[in-house]
Amino acid sequence: MTIRLRTRTAVAALSAMLLLATPVATAQALSGPAPARAASTAAATLALPRPTGPYAVGTEVLHLTDHGRADPWVPESGDRELMVSLYYPARPGRPGATAPYVSTGEARLVLTGAGLEGTVQPAALSELGTHARTGARTAPGHLPLVLLSPGFGNPRATMTSLAEDLASRGYVVASVDHPYESVGTELPDGRLLTCVACEKMESAPTKEAREELGRLLSTGRAADLSFVLDRLTGRTPGWRNSRMIDRRRVAVAGHSIGGSAAASAMLADPRFDAGINMDGTFQERVPASGLGERPFMMLGTTSHSPGGGDESWDQGWQHLDGWKRWIGVEGSGHSSFTDVPVLEDRMGVTLDPSVTLSTDRQVRIARDYVGAFLDQHLRGRHQRLLDGPTPRNPEVVFQQP
């Protein structure tokens, strides 16, 4: 089984963010020829795509500590600490400032890791335009909850565009940073955590050791996600607006190792009603007993094809016993389901030359198919988009193992 954690790819994807204010010569050295606009566009004019739903979007960051678990990667650091960005439907109006894409401290860590400190200002990352506003009043209603887990090495920020869009469509979204599994996570007290798990994966001596680390990542993230769900929906909720969450309608989704963690979370916790794996190898095998007939969607590149190189998708598909879809996107790449294509487009650089889809198509497909899945399974609204191929989406392939 291929371990699809993409440690180096994750770091390279983050390197895309660093080029927002990089001179053309540096951009060319890292990524090949770049259009002149990559050097002249000011960071302040760069922004994520606008959300498509009818709601304004509010956001708040939570720092949560699981006192029942020591951190699995750095046990001497004490209890497991998590950073969570919440996105929620908000009332009209524009109170508060838009949230930073990443903190300045996190930006500095990414810059240092890429050897670009002093070349790119941290503000080029932290001031990337977002659309969610702090301090926004919650919209009325009792709404479904979606938990998101990012790829290995990536901060939760790389899921921001999808999170904002889902919130604009009427979902509460919790995007989770898994400490020591990202190149940069800043805690409220100023501590800056690096990717210790990445270092362990890089130094693993055997394929078996890497597979075991992959399983630990997936199951450990599942525990993180269940803890976040506890804090958002339990008797003593950790978020002041938890009353707007409908605990009977909860989904979990993720990219890469986060997609594997979505399946692991469903295996471990029956409170997750539906799940999505976006282009991630299943690090924990789906057992023959399946997921208890709960719906699950596998959305990824066409390199994940039946009988292809990743046998975990074939095995997982066979054991999924509820509503299920295996959807491939022709012309996409591993990071097409994250913010990375947007960052590449804004900078005029290319990190994955195999991707032939436009940025707009990558963003639209990810938003539309994830949104349709959630509307169908958390809101009970049948979505024709999930029934099969459509003329408007010729790149989308419904795999038939």
Counted up, domains total: 1
Determine and state the CATH class: Alpha Beta
- The CATH topology label is Rossmann fold
Looking at CATH, the homologous superfamily is Alpha/Beta hydrolase fold, catalytic domain
Query: Structural class, from secondary structure content?
Result: alpha/beta
**Distinct helical segment count:** 12
Taking the sheet with the most strands, its summary is: 10 strands, mixed
Question: Key features?
Answer:
ten-stranded mixed beta sheet, single chain, two-stranded antiparallel sheet, Rossmann fold, alpha/beta, 401 residues
Structure description:
The chain has 401 residues and is an alpha/beta fold. It is built from twelve helices and twelve strands. It has a single domain (7-398), classed as Alpha/Beta hydrolase fold, catalytic domain (Rossmann fold). It has a ten-stranded mixed sheet, with helices on both faces.
How is this fold's topology laid out?
Blueprint: H1 7-18, H2 24-31, H3 37-40, E1 56-70, E2 79-90, H4 104-113, H5 123-126, E3 133-134, E4 143-149, H6 160-168, E5 172-177, E6 185-186, E7 192-193, H7 196-203, H8 207-233, E8 245-255, H9 257-268, E9 274-278, E10 296-301, H10 311-319, E11 324-329, H11 340-347, H12 359-378, E12 396-398
Parallel strand pairs: 1-3, 4-5, 4-8, 8-9, 9-10, 10-11
Antiparallel strand pairs: 1-2, 2-5, 6-7, 11-12
Helix pairs in contact: 1-4, 1-11, 6-12, 7-8, 8-9, 11-12
